[in-house]
Amino acid sequence: MNKFKNIKNFIFDCDGVLYQDLDAVFGQVSRKMTKYISEKLNLDLKKAKELQTNYFHKYNTSLNGLMIHHDVNPEEFLKYVHDINLDFMEKDLVLREELIKLNAKKFIFTNGSREHAKNVTKRIGIDHLFDGIFDIRDCEFVPKPSKEPYHKLVESYKIEPQYCIFFEDIARNLKPAFEMGMKTVWIKNNEPWAAKYSNENFINYRTENLTTFLKDINELRKN
Question: What is the pTM of this model?
Answer without folding.
Answer: 0.95
